[in-house]
Design a protein that fits this description.
Length: 325
């Protein structure tokens, strides 16, 4: 019965996240991700603010970063949320999008039912399930493992058999996978459905244990289409102000935010959303103000494997600069 409930729940999440929205000429389309990214902008999703001189706001909420990447490669969204490493990769591959802001600052955890695991050395000879080889959860885990003395396929096994983070979370919750790296809100969801599964290593904390405040964990990027920003700088400025207000509102009004997160089918119940909000590390910062930290963050991945971000660190044009800055 537990397996059936979990399968049904994740199937619902998968279906509800893929409903397309219509893009009109006088609208602003945002492609975001089900989870902390959509949670951060939930007040905007609810308010549907009209920007500039009559531009409506439209949101498409996707399950996986690759779905948003596909939209970016077609030039569809005016704003898009992807992992920062993917943002750099797309920019270096010639996609005409700039990094405008950072809304999420780390929401990844190693999860499993073996509570004897307390430190990295406890992972020796274990099998770790990871999603999407080369994407942030995979690379971040392997990097942190390496600086703690563990090398993939020498000291532990890697498993990439799950197509996406929902499938991986379902496998961890049902016991098909013993250990895996997942993010909020799936962390809270899995723990609620199967209390025997626990967060074993907080990768956000492990990052700061390694770097302190010298390199912030700028995990998630809000991108803006360059031509849209050139044509409508006032709309971009207003959009960023609204997103900042939304993030601050979610953090200061978690119960109301939790209700909206359920209403817009980001999560299935408000108690779960309420637990997930503080774990999601929501904070708004303009990319232009965090440029040095973002570059250092990307440099970690570049030094680990340059191809992760497209073979080079992005240049200054990667960073959107508000005209008033």
């Amino acid at each position: 019965m537990q397996l059936l409930k979990l399968s049904g729940l994740f199937a619902i999440l998968l279906l509800t996240a893929c409903r397309p929205s219509e893009k009109k000429p006088d609208s602003v389309l945002t492609a975001t991700l089900k989870g902390p990214s959509a949670m951060a902008m939930i007040k905007m999703i609810k308010d549907k603010p009209v920007l500039g001189k009559g531009y409506s706001t439209v949101f498409e909420i996707k399950n996986e970063p690759m779905q948003v990447q596909a939209m970016i490669m077609e030039g569809k969204p005016d704003f898009a949320v992807v992992p920062s490493t993917m943002a750099a990769l797309l920019y270096n591959k010639g996609q005409d999008y700039q990094l405008a802001a950072i809304p999420v600052w780390g929401s990844l955890y190693l999860f499993g039912s073996d509570t004897s695991i307390h430190k990295w050395s406890d992972l020796k000879a274990r099998r770790i399930s990871l999603m999407a080889r080369g994407n942030t959860p995979d690379v971040l885990f392997r990097y942190l493992a390496s600086v703690n003395g563990l090398e993939a396929d020498r000291d532990y096994q890697t498993d990439y058999s799950f197509a996406g983070h929902i499938e991986l979370a379902n496998a961890i919750a049902s016991g098909v996978s013993d250990l895996g790296v997942i993010s909020e809100p799936l962390v809270s969801m899995v723990q609620k459905r199967n209390p025997a599964v626990k967060p074993l290593l907080d990768l956000n904390l492990e990052w700061y244990n390694k770097f302190g405040d010298s390199i912030p964990f700028t995990q998630t990027a809000l991108l803006v289409k360059r031509q849209f920003a050139i044509n409508h700088p006032e709309i971009v400025s207003e959009y960023l102000d609204r997103l900042k207000e939304s993030v601050e509102w979610v953090n200061s009004h978690p119960e109301q935010a939790a209700s909206l997160i359920v209403k817009y089918e980001i999560l299935p119940d408000s108690a779960l959303a309420l637990v997930s909000i503080p774990r999601s590390n929501l904070k708004f910062a303009l990319a232009s103000k965090e440029k040095k930290g973002i570059q250092e963050y990307l440099k970690v991945f570049y030094n680990f494997n340059p191809l992760i971000i497209g073979g080079k660190l992005p240049d200054d044009e990667f960073y959107y600069q508000k005209p008033a800055d």
